[in-house]
Automatic annotation (TrEMBL):
One of its GO terms (biological process) is heme biosynthetic process. It is found in: Cytoplasm. This is Ferrochelatase. One of its GO terms (cellular component) is cytoplasm. It catalyses: heme b + 2 H(+) = protoporphyrin IX + Fe(2+); Fe-coproporphyrin III + 2 H(+) = coproporphyrin III + Fe(2+).
Amino acid sequence: MPKFFASSYLPEPVDPHAFNQEPPPRLPGPVGILLVNLGTPDAPTASSIRRYLGEFLSDPRVIEIPQWIWQVILRVFILTRRPAALAPRYQEIWLDGGSPLLVWSRLQAQGVQKHLQDQGLDARVALGMRYGNPSIAAAIDELRASGCQRILTVPMYPQYAASTTATAVDHVAAYAARLRDQPELRFIKRFQDDPAYIQALARQVREFWDQHGKPQRLLLSFHGLPRRTVEQGDPYYRDCMDTAKLLRQELGQDGQLIHVSFQSRFGAERWLEPYTEPTLRQWARDGITQVDVMCPGFLADCLETLEEIQMQCRDAFLAEGGQQFRYLPCLNDDPVWAAGFAALIRKSLGGWV
Ligand SMILES: C=CC1=C(C)c2cc3[nH]c(cc4nc(cc5[nH]c(cc1n2)c(C)c5CCC(=O)O)C(CCC(=O)O)=C4C)c(C)c3C=C
Ligand SMILES: [Fe+2]
Ligand SMILES: [Fe+2]
């Protein structure tokens, strides 16, 4: 047999007696938990934001118009202006450890790891971002290098949307498509109604009100989506309403203070309504002076919560005559949520642990 053939197709020459020996045990190794969040720029600079937005907004799951038209609009109109406009907004919220979305997501991953370990589970948790760093590929590499042959992907979005959850799933599957020896894969689709999630939100609200008193209204502001995508079958709106309904129930009588709105509209199309900022402006004009706002769809504070809600929406509400605007932070590094998140994740590990 020609040498090149033997060396490229066969393993190293094998000891002929080796087949009679007991093969090494093939253990499944620890369970891998891949937490996936959206992603954020590496630095609050226009060039870094341009790279991030270029990747994010080129995802056909996010912008559902033909790529050849969209890429022209993106490159000519959006990536030439938006990054420079966003840089000072990111600078205002930037933390010592980096972008808040990354800092809080990392702490959540560490919290889940700790709780699973404390329960005696042989699990490794890694964080991957759908756009930017740390990438999903790097996170899966890390899990595989720790010996994980079974990986549960947990998109960090309680409410399912094609533009967030499905693209994370697609990306993990695309990574696996390049592998010969694939790990076993599982995915959590949504946890909008999970008691651990609802109770963590309710506890946060109750503790805040116990300390600082109740407002006239509590606005739950979810990230918006183009209305068309929901009409075409995206279950996101229903998921948001499930969360709002359950949180209302969990808060009992005080649940009546809850209202729902949608934020972060992008582009000219009609998005899910009511929109957050116009709602707050209208409330102030109607004589509502005290509001609390929280963003239950975001597990980690980020540009959309810290800047858009806590700064822009506050200014808008006060400018129209509102007197007290309080923003309740996301679950971030809440230790009770870390335990709840671990418990919720554990439910999807049946048969693996
Ligand atoms: C068509 C565009 C967008 C859709 C659809 C969309 C859905 C969506 N996004 C999140 C969560 C986040 N979005 C964030 C930032 C952000 N989102 C869009 C556009 C769409 N989002 C843009 C252009 C940006 C960048 C900022 C801006 O230019 O305004 C972030 C924050 C990232 C950060 O760095 O802090 C998050 C998180 C969800 C949950 C969602 C669908 C439900
Ligand atoms: Fe977004
Ligand atoms: Fe935004």
